[in-house]
Design brief:
311 residues; alpha+beta; 2 domains; 7-stranded mixed beta sheet; two-stranded antiparallel sheet; 24% strand; globular; binds zinc ion
């Protein structure tokens, strides 16, 4: 795919208050979503990707870099759907993805961020969208109303059951998620679906005292919700375990005088986000020590209990 800078500047200037030139902006290409079954056992139809292509034009993207508190933004100015006929999805469809071109206004502050995008470090994108239809891939039943006996993630006659997402209604913002170089399953895209859960069911469950009566579709919806929560919980646990193991490895190198198991015990109460930050800073520390090994071996450090838990 080649891009014509003049044409792109014209597209960008539809979104800017004053006209920008090539030197003012940093342009990059990203994949917003595709037609592969994802970790939440959901899949967009190629038709839905086309609809999303229109909806994502002009949408803002955020960078939530764990080392910085401020968020920096980019904007999608053109989108297209690309089919790679040489690549087949697990469902036997040609791999189709929604691609976008985005721009950032170059500033002193986002130089480092641009370098990261350039270096391919920031790759995972999370998108928010509202889908009008959510159907069972096995029998086609509408998940929101009718429900069926098939559960996402289970296999029926060799067919992986998942939700087919179509009828895109709206697209919200997109964001780059902070992903460690070696990632475990856990960081996934978040779909803001319309009415993910019938509030009536929740109220019924909350108000239940001695017993509970649910209709079959309500029961299915509740079961789907529980399955999703379980999946999200398992993903989160796997991701935390991965972070803790990375931290354990780094702490031995960065702070050899610290009791590793005691340190990890203290880490267990931390949120995943805090663990990510700790992991990154320990890795940075290890790297800087590796660069000056003579300094490291000569320095005698006195361990202090509190110091180990400072992030
Ligand atoms: Zn079904």
């Amino acid at each position: 795919m080649t891009f014509d800078i003049e044409q792109e500047l014209e597209q960008i200037n539809q979104y800017t208050r004053k006209a920008v030139t090539q030197d003012d902006v940093y342009l990059f290409t990203l994949t917003l979503c595709d037609n592969e079954v994802d970790r939440e056992f959901e899949r967009f139809t190629p038709e839905a990707l086309k609809q999303l292509a229109e909806l994502f034009k002009g949408k803002t993207g955020l960078f939530d870099h764990s080392c910085k508190s401020e968020q920096q933004s980019a904007r999608v100015f053109s989108t297209w759907v690309e089919t790679d006929s040489a690549r087949t999805t697990t469902q036997g469809e040609p791999y189709t993805s929604l691609k976008a071109r985005a721009y950032m206004i170059r500033t002193k502050e986002n130089e480092a961020l641009i370098a990261e995008i350039e270096g391919g470090i920031k790759k995972e994108v999370s998108v928010g969208c509202a889908m009008g239809s959510l159907c069972c891939s096995v029998c086609g039943a509408d998940r929101r109303t009718a429900g069926c006996d098939h559960s996402k993630g289970h296999t029926y006659n060799g067919q992986l059951c998942h939700d087919v997402l179509s009828d895109a209604r709206d697209a919200y913002e997109w964001s780059f998620v902070a992903v460690p170089a070696q990632r475990a399953a856990g960081v996934t895209k978040a779909f803001l679906k319309e009415e993910p859960m019938n509030p009536e069911i929740l109220e019924t469950v909350k108000a239940a005292d001695t017993g509970l009566s649910l209709s079959k579709p309500q029961l299915r919806q509740l079961q789907t919700e529980i399955a999703q929560l379980e999946q999200a919980g398992a993903d989160a646990a796997a991701y935390r375990a991965k972070l803790l193991s990375d931290i354990g490895r780094s702490v031995v190198l960065a702070m050899p005088q610290i009791d590793k198991s005691l340190f990890l015990e203290g880490c267990k109460a931390m949120t995943a986000q805090a663990l990510e930050r700790l992991c990154e800073s320990l890795k940075a520390q290890t790297k800087s020590m590796q660069r000056r090994p003579q300094l490291f071996t000569k320095t005698e450090q006195t361990p202090t209990d509190n110091h180990a838990f400072c992030i």
